Amino acid sequence: MGNVNKVILLGRLGADPDTGVTAAQKIPTATLRIATNSRFKNQSGDWEDRTSWHRCVAFGRTAENLSKYFKKGSQIYLEGRLETRSWDDENSGQKRYITEVVINNFEFIDSKSGGTSQANSDDSFLDDFEIDNSSKDDDVPF
After folding, report:
1. Does 95 map to a domain?
2. Which residues contact 138 (CB under 8 A, 6 or more apart)?
3. Which pairing describes strands 95-108 and 117-120: parallel, antiparallel, or unpaired?
4. CB neighbourhood size of 76 (10 A)
5. Is 25 helix (H, G, I), strand (E, B) or coil?
6. Per the domain annotation, does 43 fall within a domain?
7. How far is C-alpha 47 from the chain's CA centre?
8. Residue 11 burial (C-beta neighbours within 10 Å; 0-12, 13-18, 19+)
9. What is the pTM of this model?
10. Residue 36 counted as domain residue
């Protein structure tokens, strides 16, 4: 049997996408913090909400589109894979690790028509797409 590395998230951005470029090849990048909520009953039988934060990264055209159309509070559906990378901390010299979701597909959830629109790194229709963020702050989990 083969291996599967797939992540699916539906959540809201905790901040505007952080943009940049890769050092070697100057490929556009976007880093996003996505908040997702889960609901559970605690020991006393009351419902509680728990917010989890996910670090997500995109490259190339996907990064450009995410940076252009998404802001803090925007709702997003995304698909990607988990990837762990490491680096040496400049201050302590210790090896550090981080696990991120590398985005390869996403969908707009907040749209003017109230529906969803699908996008991935090959889509070019996004240049004229507009997002309605008028009610985004009502549902932000923080």
Report:
1. yes
2. none
3. antiparallel
4. 21
5. coil
6. no
7. 27
8. buried
9. 0.72
10. no
Q: Is 64 helix (H, G, I), strand (E, B) or coil?
A: helix
**Tokens describing residue 16:** 């505007």
How is residue 131 written in tokens? Answer: 């997002």
Contact 68, 84 (CB under 8 A): no
Domain total of the chain: 1
Residue 66 sits in a domain whose CATH number is: 2.40.50.140
Residue 115 class from Cβ within 10 Å (0-12 exposed, 13-18 middle, 19+ buried)?
exposed
Tens-of-pLDDT digits for all 142 residues of the chain? 789 999 999 999 999 999 999 988 999 999 999 999 999 999 999 999 999 999 999 999 999 999 999 999 999 999 999 999 998 999 999 999 999 999 999 998 875 434 444 454 443 333 333 333 344 444 455 4
Instruction: Say if 14 falls within a structural domain.
Output: yes
User: What pairing do the DSSP bridges indicate for beta strands 28-41 and 7-13?
Assistant: antiparallel
Q: Which domain holds residue 121?
A: 7-28+54-133
